[in-house]
Amino acid sequence: MIQLNQQLTWLFVMALPVACISWTVTHEEVFSEFTGWCKKCSGNSKSLLRKKLFYLFTCEYCFSHYVTILFLAITGFKLLLNDWRGYLVAGFSIVWIANCYMSIYAWLRTSLKKERTQTQIQEQELQEKQAEHKL
Known about the structure:
83% helix; single chain
């Protein structure tokens, strides 16, 4: 079993690609047609299983669980315990940290967009004032 500091490094690093993949699939333009189709299928489906299956691709939190399972299968990473319980602890830990990363990313994007919009409004107001003074 690897040392705790190495396990924690793996945990925080492995959560990065999980967050990246989960966010990209569920939010970015490159997958917008796919996620739009999944939203429509989820909303219109009569079958609970089908509804949940399609919803999986529209929710970054839900999707991060499946991306985490894939990464655990590829890497064999276990956290704290060296048996099946280590996979369980690692899985939920990676999901939690990945979702923290995605929350921070969403907050940063929103803050930057708000700042950009405020700057554009201020520049437009300044241009209007300068135009008034020229008259």
